[in-house]
């Protein structure tokens, strides 16, 4: 078998559940040796979900099997601290999710663990981070989602706020944690010092939201109201044989949809319909009538022919029958014991050091004797790189960033934040389309510098090149010759059309890592389809399990975009590590719909193991009752009761008088009586304001949170303490607040970002003149011929007033 990109890396996992173990599994997939340490009862996730095993003493839940594949497993009693310390002495990485101070309480303080292993990376995942005023508050997935703005009325203003279904947040958090781990490994490699990677689930959720503070500020400047996920056009719609997602982004797409559904009279009302109102109701009725006789597959083909991002909305059964997923052989049984269940494969494909299935998830204690009889040898002190700066662990790495929109842009933004020299390349003729999202001429002559583009292009230099012409291509070739990474996320055909497919790039620079992030993959019948985050959530199964019971599927909100970016970072750092060990350059493919399915494995696993379709459950949970979102005098509150201790705490806070029914005394009884409990709770919560109730319940030990909106984020005391939002100036737009990363490094970058977003072409002269040696006459000729410049060409306005490229 091929050597993995992270071969030789040693990981100790002291974590349960999904998020932190998933981070460790990503490392294991890439070749790291991961040892999962469990107590004699085992990870509780083993006992959750559908089971299928001949040995009832070792039954593994399907999701446990998915997140724990490729690992070795041992059992150690919690009191055997010395043995844990001995194991960690030979490790590179320790992964834990005990909560704030949990390591210290167990006698495993980071300083103690590093006495004999100073370069040890300790990855710490918790609800709110290791410190801050709310670090020790109780929380559930629902309350974390609520506080981060994920819980939303996606079905429109009349719909109650609903959480995102499944364990999406856990898989997102695990990916961010893996990014933080590999970053800290880079820091340890050059400085010899290990770092605590303090990662917050709340901040992971915030990091996927579509820049609400910045976005609403821009919309306000344009005289428009706040953006709302409930007003996405068109979203999930019913067809004759199922559901389809139609996701309009540009003015041209909107006009084409109106023509397709015989509703041309709405072609100039895109912005008006986005904000709701009676016209929205009439338009929706027109669309529904047209779709009623259409097959979803036919609608997708019609829309995609017009370059409209439309996809089927798949469930756990239909997704594995899809032609695209089938041809790419993405779903597999290779990681499950004896082929027991079907599950997603890897979220990336590395040509030179591919991810591989080595072993299924371990049975409880399966490798205890093997590991303890031959522990890893103690790590020798690392050689320190002279002059290494822990603030810039990726210093010396040159990245050419052809990425567009959110997924492509954010990948380069993170690498730049960690010290890489990231050169953002656009053309004047077709700049990054994200420049025209949530922006418009009402902002002034340089309006294309004001929109959400700024949020995903910090920490970069900006260069313009027209790659459709020989002069531009020749300059890119010169830059490629000395680059370390080339990033792009065009649809699959574009980069080859420009003449920079992998074979050509490799000829120019055999040591380069080329990271391609196409929406639907480089092969398959959907290779040429267009899409963005909402579409990827719909086709990957996430939308089908989100929404109220019996209602239509709801799209989370494009969280796949930043998730794709972070998987791009994981794959890039792994490929650079492989190259550092003499492996050379390679092609990395990060297929965006496959990333989405990797973070939503439950529907496929559930159907594979039971033959049943996993449906929407709204705000309910199998592990909590009551759990829901309830009205208050000034908003909504989310709360969860997961056991009798939290139930008694809720009674103490709200008074036991209304909850005396004996059916409520046990978790089983509360689940059975959930509807009655919801009504009783709503009667009480509707009498109080949300701040009072949140404080009352949280202080009593009940997970509770306000269903936050964008105006709450800058006032969140936990985010403020951890300096999650940072301000940066912009030459045209001025100062604004920008979201940070959800990881804090004890040794490493002290801030999330190093610099603000540059204006278009700001560094043309610095790069082409100062680095490639072009003189003033040559630069002037390039500018005169439109090869380089600072102002887009060919801008036009759609009838709705929004801007797009002609």
From TrEMBL:
One of its GO terms (molecular function) is transferase activity. Keywords: Transferase. The keyword Transferase applies. InterPro entries: CoA-transferase_III, CoA-Trfase_fam_III, CoA-Trfase_III_dom3_sf, CoA-Trfase_III_dom_1_sf. Pfam families: CoA_transf_3 (PF02515). Its EC number is 2.8.3.-. It is an enzyme of class 2 (transferase). Residues 39-58 are annotated as: Disordered. It comes from the Bacteria. Belongs to the CoA-transferase III family. This is CoA transferase.
């Amino acid at each position: 078998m091929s050597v993995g990109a992270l071969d030789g890396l040693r990981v100790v996992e002291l974590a349960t559940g999904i998020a932190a173990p998933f981070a460790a599994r990503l490392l294991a997939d890439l070749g790291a040796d991961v040892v999962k340490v469990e107590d004699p009862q085992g990870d509780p996730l083993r006992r959750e979900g559908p089971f299928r095993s001949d040995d009832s003493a070792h039954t593994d839940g399907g999701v446990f099997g998915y997140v724990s594949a490729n690992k070795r497993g041992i059992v150690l009693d919690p009191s055997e601290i010395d043995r844990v310390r001995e194991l960690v002495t030979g490790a590179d990485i320790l992964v834990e999710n005990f909560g704030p101070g949990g390591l210290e309480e167990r006698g495993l303080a980071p300083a103690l663990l590093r006495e004999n292993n100073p370069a040890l990376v300790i990855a710490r995942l918790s609800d709110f981070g290791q410190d801050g005023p709310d670090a020790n508050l109780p929380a559930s997935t629902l309350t974390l989602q609520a506080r981060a703005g994920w819980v939303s009325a996606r079905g429109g203003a009349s719909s109650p706020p609903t959480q995102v279904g499944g364990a999406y947040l856990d898989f997102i958090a695990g990916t961010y944690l893996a990014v933080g781990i590999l970053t800290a490994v880079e820091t340890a490699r050059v400085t010899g010092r290990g770092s605590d990677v303090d990662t917050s689930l709340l901040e992971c959720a915030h990091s996927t939201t579509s820049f609400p503070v910045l976005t609403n500020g821009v919309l306000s400047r344009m005289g428009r109201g706040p953006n709302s996920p409930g007003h996405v056009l068109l979203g999930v719609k019913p067809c004759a044989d199922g559901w389809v997602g139609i996701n309009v982004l540009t003015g041209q797409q909107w006009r084409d949809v109106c023509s397709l559904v015989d509703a041309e009279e709405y072609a100039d009302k895109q912005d008006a319909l986005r904000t709701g109102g009676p016209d929205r109701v009439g338009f929706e009725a027109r669309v529904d009538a047209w779709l009623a006789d259409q097959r979803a597959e036919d609608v997708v083909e019609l829309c995609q022919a017009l370059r409209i991002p439309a996809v089927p909305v798949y469930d756990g059964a239909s997704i594995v029958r899809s032609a695209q997923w089938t041809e790419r052989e993405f779903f597999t049984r290779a990681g499950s014991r004896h082929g027991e269940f079907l599950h997603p494969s890897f979220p990336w494909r590395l040509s030179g050091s591919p991810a591989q299935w080595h072993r299924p998830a371990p049975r409880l204690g399966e490798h205890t004797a093997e590991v303890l009889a031959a522990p890893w040898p103690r790590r020798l002190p690392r050689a320190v790189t002279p002059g290494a700066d822990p603030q810039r662990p990726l210093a010396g790495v040159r990245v050419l960033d052809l990425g567009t929109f959110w997924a492509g842009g954010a990948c380069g933004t993170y690498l730049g934040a960690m010290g890489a020299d990231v050169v953002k390349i656009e053309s004047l003729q077709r700049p990054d389309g994200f420049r025209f999202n949530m922006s418009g001429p009402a902002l002034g002559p340089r309006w294309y510098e004001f929109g959400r583009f700024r949020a995903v292009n910090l920490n970069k230099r900006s260069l313009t090149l027209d790659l459709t012409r020989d002069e531009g291509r020749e300059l890119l070739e010169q830059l490629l010759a000395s680059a370390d990474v080339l990033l792009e996320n065009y649809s699959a055909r574009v980069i080859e059309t420009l003449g920079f497919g992998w074979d050509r790039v490799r000829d120019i620079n055999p040591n380069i890592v080329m990271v391609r992030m196409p929406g639907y993959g480089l092969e398959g019948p959907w290779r040429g389809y267009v899409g963005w985050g909402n579409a990827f959530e719909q086709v990957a199964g996430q939308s089908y399990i989100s929404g109220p019971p019996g209602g239509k599927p709801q799209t989370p909100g494009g969280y796949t975009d930043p998730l794709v970016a972070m998987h791009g970072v994981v794959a890039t750092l792994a490929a650079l590590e492989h190259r550092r060990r003499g492996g050379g350059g390679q092609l990395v493919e990060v297929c965006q719909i496959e990333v989405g399915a990797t973070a939503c494995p439950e529907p496929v696993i559930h159907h594979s193991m039971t033959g049943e379709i996993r449906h929407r459950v709204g705000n309910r949970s199998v592990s909590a009752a009551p759990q829901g979102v309830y009205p208050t005098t000034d908003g909504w509150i989310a709360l969860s009761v997961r056991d009798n201790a939290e139930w008694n705490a809720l009674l103490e806070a709200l008074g036991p008088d209304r909850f005396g029914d004996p059916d409520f005394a046990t978790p089983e009884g509360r689940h059975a009586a959930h509807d009655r409990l919801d009504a009783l709770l709503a009667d009480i919560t509707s009498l109080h304001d949300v701040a009072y109730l949140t404080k009352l319940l949280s202080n009593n030990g009940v997970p509770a949170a306000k269903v936050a909106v964008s105006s709450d984020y800058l006032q969140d005391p936990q985010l403020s303490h951890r300096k999650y939002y940072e301000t940066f100036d912009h030459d045209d737009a001025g100062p604004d607040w920008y979201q940070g990363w959800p990881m804090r490094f004890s040794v490493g970058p002290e801030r999330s970002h190093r610099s603000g977003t540059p204006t278009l072409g700001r560094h043309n002269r610095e790069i082409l003149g100062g680095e490639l040696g072009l003189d003033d006459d040559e630069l002037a000729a390039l500018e005169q011929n439109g090869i380089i410049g600072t102002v887009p060409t060919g801008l036009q306005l759609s009838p709705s007033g929004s801007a797009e490229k002609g």
